[in-house]
Amino acid sequence: MKRRGQPIIPTIIISCLLLLLILLIYVYFGYHRYDYYGDDAPVPNVLHPVVEQKRSELVERAKEENIAIIITETIRSFERQNKLYDQGRTTAGDIVTYARGGESYHNYGLAIDFAIEDADGNLTWDIHYDGNGNHLPDWDEVVAIAKELGFEWGGDWDSFKDYPHLQMTFGLSIKQLQRGFRPKAETPE
Ligand SMILES: [Zn+2]
User: Fold this and answer.
1) What is the distance in A from the centroid of ligand 1 to the CA of 166?
2) Is residue 27 pLDDT above 80, yes or no?
3) Which three-class secondary structure state does DSSP give residue 30?
4) Per residue in 140-167, pLDDT tens?
5) pLDDT digits over 56-87, tens only?
6) Which of 13, 90, 129, 166 has its CA 20 to 30 A from that of 81?
7) For residue 175, how many other CB atoms are within 10 A of its CB?
8) Average model confidence (pLDDT) for the chain?
9) Which CATH number is correct for 49-183, 3.30.1380.10, 3.40.47.10, 2.40.50.100, 3.90.380.10?
10) Boundaries of every domain in the chain
């Protein structure tokens, strides 16, 4: 019996071509956003230039709202990350991180932590503090500016909320960073 319905073969060919096109677009944008170095990928020892610039903008824009912020942490070595991981587990203190060396965006120069300087000049991590007296917590104001600048906020995480933490992933997962992918230096966020 002859088939009179949809011609199957051309449909398959068109589907394959579409898939190929999607793959090419993916590879093209991936190639232009990231560098891939494999196992020998260098670990940066300074903040990514885009993160560095956005950090300055964040401090400036907070200042315009009469909020003084201090960046308490930027890039962190794998070694220091492991020491922090040990805290509260094999060494004294409270647990401060769930990331081992290489598992934090800090380790790749892609994250910063901030605190607020209160009226007495002391650092505070009080997320309800309203130093500029506009009836909004200063912390929320800083986070709103940070998000506008392209940062992700650790306070949005479901499991372990890290309120001082801001990061830019450039679409790269920790697994990809560990495998040797690095955001290009000139990548916009
Ligand atoms: Zn952090």
Assistant:
1) 6
2) no
3) helix
4) 999 999 999 999 999 999 988 999 999 9
5) 999 999 999 999 999 999 999 999 999 999 99
6) 129
7) 9
8) 91
9) 3.30.1380.10
10) 2-32, 49-183
Q: What percent of the chain has pLDDT over 90?
A: 77
Distances (CA, A) of 62 to 57, 71, 113: 8, 12, 14
Measuring CA to CA, how many Å separate 57 from each of 85, 138, 186? Answer: 30, 16, 17
CA 163 / ligand 1 centre spacing (Å): 8
- 42 CA distance to ligand 1 centroid (A)? 21
CA of 97 to the centre of ligand 1 (A): 9
Ligand 1 centroid distance, CA of 172 (Å): 17
